[in-house]
Amino acid sequence: MATITEDLVLLLLDPGSGRAIVDSTSLDRAVGGALLLDLSTRDRLTADETGARAWLTVADSSTTGDPLLDTALARLEGRHPLRAQKAVERLARKTREPVLQRLVERGLVRRDRGRILGVFPVTTWPAADAGPVTELRRRIAEVLRDGAPPDQHTALLISLVHAVKAEHKLVDGPRRQLRARADQVAQGDWAGPAVRKAVQAVQTSVAVAVAASASAAGASGSS
To answer: Which residues contact 120 (CB under 8 A, 6 or more apart)?
Structure first.
């Protein structure tokens, strides 16, 4: 089964254009959060609280068997306990590219290089196989729009999609209702207490990190 991180990045790419459907800051923070959730569901991390100020601790530093996750775990070792928001920020840096490369290797996206106005280089990641992302979006829609109960993997994806306010970009329907349903799912009782604490800490931390970045950018732009 794909990691939460891989599926999240696949969801946040437009299959046709290969561009992210959220801004780069939101994408990077979401990737950082997804890596933390992947580690949490593999019993590598524990959280002492549920908010952005929760402390995350490496409970088990043994290999996960996944190089992407092992690299993320190594970046947290020796720095714990660590505030959840700090952990999100740490894993948000320089991790997007390895995830995209993993999707290329799996044959799900392709790397297209071009130039804007014939001058500025740009890389996009359109779908090479639209089947998996179509299925992911269908599952998200069933939960958010149709009220279907989520499995843990889908609920984790929704918690991160909710954190970057991208529900309406994945599912057709009233934006407020989609947000409310996503929040209900994110707060739901679909995982054990340890995982649920980590999920809520990470989701809140991603949302806070994204909001803080947007506020800083707004202040800089108005100065």
So the answer is: none
Strand, helix or coil for residue 167 = helix
Q: Are 84 and 54 in contact, with CB atoms under 8 Å apart?
A: yes
Sign for the pseudo-dihedral over CA of 82, 43, 91, 221: negative
pLDDT in tens, 111-151: 999 877 777 888 999 999 999 999 999 999 999 999 999 99
Q: In whole angstroms, what is the distance from residue 207 CA to residue 26 CA?
A: 9
DSSP state of 150: P
Task: List pLDDT tens digits, range 23-54.
Answer: 999 999 999 999 999 999 999 998 987 777 88
Where would I find the H helices in the chain?
4-11, 24-41, 67-76, 84-92, 96-105, 130-144, 152-163, 167-170, 175-186, 193-222
- Tell me how far CA of residue 12 lies from CA of 6, 47, 53, 176, in angstroms: 10, 26, 26, 20
Distances (CA, A) of 7 to 39, 204, 222: 15, 20, 36
- Cα gap 219→43, rounded to integer Å: 40
CA distance 36 to 38: 5
24 burial type by CB count under 10 A (0-12 exposed, 13-18 middle, 19+ buried): exposed
Q: Model's pTM, two decimal places?
A: 0.91
